[in-house]
Every structure is written in C-alpha cells, then in structure tokens.
Design goal:
globular, alpha/beta, 14 helices
Length: about 350
C-alpha cells in the first residue's frame, strides 16, 4: 500500500488571512460561505493572494462485478458506451468542462470492454471489471495498489501542466452499491439508510438491492469480525471499483501535493470518505461541490462535516455537480484578490 504524507496547512497565516477578509469593504461575514471558502483556499495555498491554475478533471471508468446481481437498472454496457460518448464531446461532463475551462482526461481503469484503440481514452485498465463482492473480494491487494497508483500518477500528470485544482468524476454502472457499503462501514450508519435508487430503480428493484448488499456485508463481516484498523484497507478492496480506488489515490496525491480537490456526488463523496479514513488530513484540501438527490448523500456529507456549495437535485455523476460549483470557487478567490478594503476605498469601518 502506497503511503501518502499529507500535511495539515500551517496555521501561522490564518489570522492574517482572516484580517484581510474582514477588512474587505463589506459587512463582516456578509459573504457567508464564500468567506469560509476563501479562507480554506488561502490556507491550502498559504497565501493572501490565491490563484486557480489550469483546472483539470479526471473522468475514471470501471465496471463492477456486483452489477451481475441486478442491483442497477442500467446494464454494464452503458459504461463503455458512455466512455466512447465522452470522447465525442457529448456527455454532461464534456459540456461543463468546456463551460468552465477544465482539461478533461477520460481514463479507462477497469471497463469491461476493449477501449484501447479508442482515441481520446487513456488506457490504464487493470482488469475488465471487478469480481462480484457478493461472493468474493472485488479486487486483489495487487490490483488495489495498481488503482491507487494510477490515480496518483494521473494527478502528477495534471500538476506537471501547472494544475493546482483537480476535480474527479466517475463512470461505472452499479457503483452506488459499494458507495453505500463504504458509508455503512465507515460511518457506522444502518445499511438500509445508505442505499438509494441509483440510476432509477423501482421499489421491487430497490428491495432486491437491499437484500443483495445485506448478504454481501454479512459475508464480509463473517470474514472480518473484528473490524480492526487494518480492515479499512480490506473493506476498500473488498467492495470498491477500480475507478473508485483510483479516485481515492487521486484525492490523496492531490492533497499531498497541496492541490485543491473538488468532490462531486454520492460516489465521489464515498471516495472522499474513504480517503479521510486512510489519511484524515486530506479533508483540509476538499471542496464539496454539491449535495445530490441520492439517498444518504446528505448524511454522508455530514460524516465529513462538509458544507456543499450547491443543491440542484442532481444525481448524474461524472463529476458534473462539482464542475457546476466552480464559478462559486472562482468567486471566493476573486473576492480576496479584487475587492477593495475600507482604508483604500476611504469608507468608514463601522465594526
């Protein structure tokens, strides 16, 4: 397992940042969450003049063995079909990346289809999907390490181009299932409260999904009854998808490099929760783009004391909700850099 050395931002500069924010020509605290966001960004970058440089978006694709149990309304073929669609610029993620100036990297980490000759897809395939965690671990320890390293290496590629803010999205049919289980195990929340309709299951389908995931968790706990600290890694590899583990690796490496990490919806929030389990300091670098409509997302965000920037009723995935929040992040940076202060504006400071 790769070890990430993530530093908590140095607190020495905090008072100076707060003083600058408080002396902008506005009532103290009147820009609300923007002020909190500006503080976080300044702390991460250790500066009073933050910058957002060359934003990049990683779109990670992978299939899941648990899909064979009918836990998703969409068949796994949709994964590779959408991956190809992304190369043609036709997805929601493409639109938002174009709108907000993100460089998009489409990466096959474990799609159950040969995409190696498709122009525009980066081939980092570990296997053609994970195994079915109803019966066995989704991946081996070696595969887990490969996925973590792939995510980290992708971040290094972005950083080499000057990127200091990264967004991560996913494409993987049935990946709400491992996300729900991670939420259950890491958050100590009843499993039934963690399971939602995913891409649109009806009531019988949802009941079936509950039963399949319940059986999978019971089998896992029978193998890992103690839930020791080391079992965090086991639960990640036992249930996770290749695209999800790569996302965890990307988040951890970005924080290690002192980059901002934009977190998307239910699946990526589960990956953020997993990353926090491995290295808690990573939380300081995360900006949570939105709260989606998938059951349990709000509660998962609460586990990380996260304040989402948007709530638009979205549940598309791909990183789209986080991308939509980027103008708000820009506004927080522009506030610090472009607003005048009371002294220069010759306005009486009244507090």
């Amino acid at each position: 397992m790769r070890v990430f050395h993530i530093e908590k931002p140095d607190e020495t500069i905090r008072a100076e940042i707060q003083d600058k924010i408080d002396n902008l020509n506005k009532p103290k605290g009147s820009l609300g969450l923007l002020e909190e966001l500006a503080m976080q960004i300044c702390m991460v970058q250790q500066t009073l003049s933050p910058r957002l440089n060359h934003p990049c978006h990683l779109l990670l694709g992978g299939d899941h063995g648990i899909e064979r149990e009918g836990v998703s309304v969409s068949p796994r073929d949709v994964t590779w079909q959408q991956m190809i669609n992304f190369t043609r610029g036709g997805g929601g993620v493409n639109m938002f990346c174009r709108q907000h100036g993100f460089k998009l990297r489409i990466v096959d980490v474990g799609v159950d289809y040969d995409l190696s000759k498709v122009e525009g897809i980066i081939d980092r395939k570990i296997a053609r999907g994970t195994k079915n965690f109803l019966y066995e671990a989704a991946m081996s320890e070696e595969e887990f390490d490969k996925a973590i390293n792939i995510g980290a290496e992708l971040v290094d590629d972005c950083a080499a181009e000057g990127c200091n803010i990264i967004c991560v999205g996913e494409m993987g049919i049935a990946n709400t299932s491992p996300s729900s289980i991670w939420m259950h195990l890491f958050g100590n929340i009843p499993l039934d409260d963690c399971i939602g309709v995913g891409a649109g299951l009806n009531n019988p389908g949802l009941l079936h999904k509950h039963e399949v995931l319940r059986q999978a968790v019971e089998r896992y706990i029978s193998i890992h009854p103690s839930q020791k600290e080391s079992d965090k890694y086991d639960s990640l590899s036992y249930f996770g998808g290749f695209e999800m583990i790569a996302a965890v690796g990307a988040m951890l490496r970005a924080a290690e490099r002192k980059m901002l990490v934009m977190v998307d919806g239910f699946i990526m929030s589960a990956c953020a929760l997993a990353a926090c389990q491995l290295v808690p300091e990573v939380r300081n670098y995360m900006i949570f783009g939105h709260c989606g409509d998938e059951s349990g997302h709000k509660r998962m965000l609460e586990l990380m004391n996260a304040k989402p920037l948007l709530h638009l009723g979205m549940r598309l995935g791909e990183g789209t909700g986080a991308l939509c929040s980027y103008p708000i992040i820009m506004s927080a940076v522009n506030m610090v850099n472009e607003m005048n202060n009371f002294q220069n504006a010759k306005i009486t400071k009244y507090f």
